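Standup notes, protein team

Yesterday: finished cleaning the Nocardia xishanensis set.
Today: GNAT family N-acetyltransferase structure.
Blockers: none.

Input for GNAT family N-acetyltransferase:
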Amino acid sequence: MQLSDGVISLRPIETSDAEAHLAGADAELMRRLGVGRGSLDGVIAYFEECVASWAAQGPLRTFAITACDDATLVGTLDIRTGRSYLAAGQADLAYGIYPAWRGHGYATKAVILGCRYLARTGLAEEVVLRIDPANAASVGVARRARFHYLRSSDEPGEGPLDWYIQAL
């Protein structure tokens, strides 16, 4: 399965993407995605969990974001359902674009493709982006992808987050 808009593509993550992921991501992205900046083995273990969730049709769907022209891995996109902080019918969407690829609109394109995937599969009726309010680039992505501000939260261990939503 692959989704594309002609500029980027989304495909299920593979364990073979781990080296490119580790090489492309910076420390801040690894922190936000919840994957320790540690070893290749740690990233492989995380990607194995993602692959297993895909196979079991579980609550986590992790996509590789690739450039259409040469299939270079430029980031990742996670879709999670069934989280305790989500209402029924909601999915949490998180993305990360590697520093060398930022500023080209790939994050907005990936969010839009992720929403199309959710609408097509019926996994959710509404998408939530939870964004650090200090992350102006991600707030811009939410606005360009036509998400609407819902509320702010300050969860232990997560810090302040602004919630943006979009109905599918």
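Follow-up from PR in the comments: The radius of gyration is 15 Å.
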